[in-house]
Every structure is written in structure tokens, then in C-alpha cells.
Design a protein that fits this description.
Structural class of chain A: mainly alpha
CATH architecture of chain B: Orthogonal Bundle
CATH class of chain B: Mainly Alpha
Radius of gyration of chain A: 23 Å
Distance between the termini of chain A: 12 Å
Largest sheet of chain A: none
CATH superfamily of the largest domain in chain A: MetI-like
CATH topology of the largest domain in chain A: MetI-like fold
CATH class of the largest domain in chain A: Mainly Alpha
Distance between the termini of chain B: 41 Å
Helix content of chain A: over 70%
Shape of chain A: globular
Order of helices and strands of chain B: HHHHHHHHHHHHHH
Membrane topology (chain A): Multi-pass membrane protein
Transmembrane segments (chain A): 20-44, 64-93, 105-127, 139-163, 192-213, 247-270
Keywords (chain A): Membrane, Sulfate transport, Transmembrane, Transmembrane helix, Transport
Largest interface: A-B, 106 and 105 residues
Family (chain A): Belongs to the binding-protein-dependent transport system permease family. CysTW subfamily.
Helix content of chain B: over 70%
Number of helices of chain B: 14
Organism (chain A): Sphingobium jiangsuense
Oligomer: heterodimer
Strand content of chain A: under 5%
Chain lengths: 283, 279
């Protein structure tokens, strides 16, 4: 509709509303000054380093270990959140129980709670002498200062992404298809795996990708619980900070570039996936 | 009746699923929140009061309030302008503009700080020029402001764009045809239409501006009493093993988060604002 009504060769369709120049100008200038130009410096600095320096700094053993840890724990936390985020969204949409509204609001806590606050709270809970840690420690389970602790912090950070992306899709889904499946003799489990799961799968994938992307870059909630041992529990964002503190700007830039490229790739893949699906659905 | 039963689970299954969901939320979300307040009040209200009235804590609180007071209005003006341009006109490249506005959400907070160090730091592109003119950006308040504005950049716009697109432009066109000026139309027609959505975006923007840690940590330099925001002060106290102090300041931030959540929920229920996936 939009593309049809755009007259050929004209960049903008005429409108009686005033203010396009002002608002578009303010948006583009502010966007360039705050976001685009600063972000471009990362790539400019990387380009100025030369390929071999870039690889040496961006793909050193220490950097590779940090990527493995960051991507691995973010993926593990994302998978946990897919299962429990779906369960929470399901319970919130389909069932009624006392306190449901409060629970629904609580799901957004990780969006509202500053990450450093979450970080010290989780460390207090899972440290060997902590609220839960003291019971796990005698069993030989170490959470704080291990990759498990990092995963727990990332589960906290990522949960709302999955719940909030699945919830509206579940709520919009009519019961007619499920009724049809039931009349045709399908059991509840069969209906769930054959009918419901395929229709919410795109929302689950979107939620996972957003939680994963956020987890890979997460800093505040992780650094307190992670222990920060180079090569073992050092996440990629922390490695950037460490490099900066040693005035190794090139090293920090190279690692940041690798992380930026990966996050942009996830963003593009996700956009492409959603466009493809929309086209296939004919909407 | 049998149809209804066929689209839900048995009572026992329902109760089990609800209990598992609640247990997960209690462990992963509620317990950390309780831990913050529990640890803050460990030495009673006196220890809490001492930590919060400490001069360094006071200056951190002042700095955090000031940073939010500057960065939130700037992003609010930008958010309204961008949403007006995007929702009221048709032009090529619109979806690219929307994607670019969302960009800061997919950048790690640490990288968000790093870009300003590369621009304005001592070894940065503009560093020598700034040093010659005696202007400090990095390890000073301007750097903290820039990093915060970058991080909170999309909040207001991404809330207003869908809302204003849904409202269309018929109201504004009617006002103009009745002789209102452009500004009159904005203040008397558009703004009342979007005020609750705007408030919603500003709330989320403010919560993030006050709570941002990673980006601010990279540019601040952690100078006590000067460039220490509340989240950074929490880190310093925690690393000094002053746990009561750290959790006391953290509990103020947790209170801010709770107030934000309550206000957000009230807006969602009363004004039927959608609650999609947000950062």
C-alpha cells in the first residue's frame, strides 16, 4: 500500500501535515551524533589496525576462550529460558490463579532492576557461604565463580525476552484448532506438540535470539558472580574492560568488533527470518 | 462441556504447571530481590541509614539524578520527533531508520562505553584536540552523559512509533483544516493522544538511565564524589567488602525498579498499552 502510493521518483509522499523537515532533521542528526558516528569509530579503528594485528588481538587464545564462554553460557541460559519462559507464558495466558497480575508484572523485573544490583544479589545467594550456596557447597556443587553461576545470571537477565515474545502469540491463538484436534481424537500432549508448539515456534525463536544476544553482551549482572579468571570464567565484555584498563585500545577494539559483528548478524538473521515468515503467511 | 475440557489440561496437571512456574519465578526473580533488601537491613535501620547518608553515597545519588534529568528529556524530545516523522509521513528508507534507532539495544553495554573512549579518550580521535582546549569528556560527567544517552536512545521512540502509527493522521489533518497551526496541532491534538504511551516510554528510559552500569563504568573512571553514579558506587562498596553499604545503595535502585514496575503495570491495565517484548 505504502509503496504503491509513493509516486515514482519521489522520495517522500506529499502530506498536508507540517514539520517533516524539522522532525526528520532532528531525528537523523541526533541519531548520527549519538549512535552512528560513535559506532563507526569501532570499525574505523579496526580497519586502521591491519589484518594481522586485528587477528592477533581479536582471536588470541584468551579472546577465543572468552567468546566460547560468553556464547556457550548465553546459549545454555537461552535454552533454559525457552523451556521455562514458555511454561510461564502458558500459565499466565491459559490459567487463572490468585496473584496472577503481580506475577505477570514481576516477570519484567530483570528489565527494571539495574544489572549491578542483580549481580551482587545473585552472588550473595550462590556464593559458597550464601543463602543457597551453603546448601550446595557440601554436595560439591559450586555455582558462584564458575560458568554455572554465569549461566544463572544470564537466565535472570534473559527470562522476560522469551515470556514477553511468546505471551501475545499464545493469547491471540484461537481455541478452534485445538477443539478440532480434540474432536479428531488427539490427546492433549499430541495437540501441544503437533498444533500449539509449531505455531508458537517463531515467537520462541525470536525470544531465544533476543535473550541470547543480550546474554552475550551482558556485563553488570555477570562480573560479580563469574570470578573473572582469564581463560576460565572471563566473559568477552570483561576482557574488553581489562584491555582498556591496560590501555590496550587496539585489543579492546578488535574484541568489540568481533562481538558487534556477531550481534548484528543475529539481528539480520532474525529480521530475515521474520520477513520470510510474514511473506510465507501472506500477510 | 466436553469440548471445553478438551482444550485444557486436567486439574492436577494445571496445578502442577502453575506450581513449577511459580517455583522458577520465586527462585530466579523473587529471591534476588529479597536478598537485596535483606542484606541492606542486616545491621538494622541504623546501618542502612549510615550507608545511605554517607557523603560519597550522597554524591553518587546526586550524580545519578542529574544524569537522568539531562539524558531522559533529550531522548524524550528525540523520541517524539522521530515518531512524528516516522508515523505521520511516507518516505523511502523508513524501515531502515526504525532499525537504526533500535541499534543501541543490540550493542553490549561495554562496547557502548568503548566507542566514546575511542572518540574522546586520551588516545581517541578527538582526544588531543580536547586536551589542548582543556575539555574532559572521558573520566568526567560528559562521558557518563553520552554513554547513558546512547544506551537509553531507543526507549521512547520504540514505544511511540507503533502507538502513533495506529492512531494515524486523521486527527491532525482535521485540526489543520479547522485552522490550527502546526504547533497548536501538536500540543492540543497529538500530545494528549500519546501522553500515556510517552509516559510509559519515559519510565522505562529513566529506569535504565539511572541503573546503567557497564557503559558508564567504562567511561567514568570511578572517581569517588565526582564521577561515581549509584550503580558504580554499589560496585566499589561491594569490592571493599562493605556489603551492608553496597546493598543499602542497591536497595534504593531496587526500589526505583519496583516503582517503575508498578507504574508500568498500572499504565498497561488502565490504558491498555500493549506489553510486547521490551528491553
Amino acid at each position: 500500500m505504502t509503496s504503491l502510493s509513493l509516486s515514482r521518483g519521489r522520495w517522500r509522499q506529499p502530506s498536508v501535515l507540517p514539520g517533516f523537515g524539522l522532525t526528520f532533521g532532528v531525528s537523523v542528526i541526533w541519531l548520527s551524533l549519538i549512535v552512528l558516528i560513535p559506532l563507526a569509530t569501532i570499525f574505523l579503528r579496526s580497519a586502521g589496525m591491519g589484518w594481522s594485528d586485528f587477528v592477533a588481538a581479536g582471536f588470541s587464545d584468551r579472546a577465543l576462550a572468552a567468546y566460547r564462554l560468553s556464547f556457550g553460557t548465553a546459549a545454555a541460559a537461552g535454552l533454559v529460558n525457552v523451556v521455562f519462559g514458555l511454561l510461564i507464558a502458558w500459565v499466565l495466558v491459559r490459567y487463572s490463579f490468585p496473584g496472577k497480575r503481580v506475577i505477570g508484572a514481576l516477570v519484567d523485573l530483570p528489565f527494571a532492576l539495574p544489572t549491578a544490583v542483580a549481580g551482587i544479589a545473585l552472588t550473595t545467594i550462590y556464593a559458597p557461604s550464601g543463602w543457597i550456596g551453603q546448601f550446595l557447597d557440601p554436595l560439591g556443587v559450586k555455582v558462584a565463580f564458575t560458568p554455572l553461576g554465569i549461566t544463572i545470571a544470564l537466565i535472570f537477565i534473559g527470562l522476560p525476552f522469551v515470556v514477553r515474545s511468546v505471551e501475545p502469540v499464545l493469547a491471540d491463538m484461537g481455541l478452534e484448532v485445538e477443539e478440532a484436534a480434540a474432536t479428531l481424537g488427539a490427546g492433549r500432549a499430541q495437540t501441544f506438540f503437533r498444533i500449539i508448539l509449531p505455531s508458537i515456534l517463531p515467537a520462541l525463536i525470536t525470544g531465544f535470539a533476543m535473550a541470547f544476544a543480550r546474554g552475550v553482551g551482558e556485563y553488570g549482572s555477570v562480573i560479580f558472580i563469574s570470578g573473572n579468571m582469564p581463560g576460565k570464567t572471563e566473559i568477552a565484555p570483561l576482557l574488553i574492560v581489562t584491555q582498556l584498563e591496560q590501555y590496550a585500545y587496539d585489543g579492546a577494539t578488535a574484541i568489540a568488533t568481533v562481538m558487534l559483528v556477531v550481534s548484528f548478524a543475529i539481528l539480520l538473521l532474525l529480521n530475515g527470518y521474520q520477513t520470510l515468515r510474514r511473506r510465507r503467511m501472506g500477510a | 462441556m466436553s469440548i471445553h475440557r478438551s482444550t485444557t489440561e486436567r486439574r492436577a496437571t494445571r496445578i502442577l504447571l502453575i506450581l513449577v512456574a511459580l517455583a522458577f519465578l520465586a527462585f530466579f526473580l523473587l529471591l534476588p530481590l529479597i536478598a537485596v533488601f535483606g542484606e541492606a537491613l542486616k545491621q538494622g535501620i541504623g546501618g542502612f541509614a549510615n550507608a545511605v547518608t554517607d557523603p560519597d553515597a550522597q554524591s553518587a545519588i546526586r550524580l545519578t539524578l542529574m544524569v537522568a534529568a539531562i539524558s531522559v528529556p533529550l531522548n524524550m524530545v528525540f523520541g517524539v520527533a522521530a515518531s512524528w516523522a516516522i508515523s505521520k509521513y511516507d518516505f523511502k528508507g523508513k524501515s531502515l531508520l526504525v532499525t537504526l534507532i533500535d541499534l543501541p539495544f543490540s550493542v553490549s553495554p561495554v562496547v557502548s562505553g568503548l566507542i566514546f573512549v575511542l572518540l574522546f579518550g586520551a588516545q581517541g580521535y578527538l582526544g588531543p584536540w580536547l586536551a589542548d582546549h582543556g575539555i574532559r569528556v572521558i573520566f568526567a560527567v560528559p562521558g557518563i552523559l553520552l554513554a547513558t544517552i546512547f544506551i537509553t536512545f531507543p526507549f521512547v521512540a520504540r514505544e511511540l512509533i507503533p502507538l502513533m502509527q495506529e492512531q494515524g493522521r486523521a486527527d491532525e489533518e482535521a485540526a489543520l483544516s479547522l485552522g490550527a497551526s502546526g504547533w497548536q496541532t501538536f500540543w492540543r491534538v497529538t500530545l494528549p493522544n500519546i501522553r500515556w504511551g510517552l509516559l510509559y516510554g519515559v519510565l522505562l528510559c529513566n529506569a535504565r538511565a539511572m541503573g546503567e552500569f557497564g557503559a558508564v563504568s567504562v567511561v567514568s573512571g570511578h572517581i569517588r564524589g565526582e564521577t561515581n553514579t549509584m550503580p558504580l558506587h554499589v560496585e566499589i562498596l561491594y569490592n571493599e567488602y562493605n556489603f551492608v553499604g553496597a546493598f543499602a545503595v542497591a536497595s534504593l535502585l531496587a526500589l526505583l525498579a519496583l516503582v517503575t514496575l508498578v507504574a508500568k503495570s498500572v499504565l498497561e491495565w488502565r490504558f491498555d498499552l500493549h506489553s510486547g517484548a521490551k528491553h
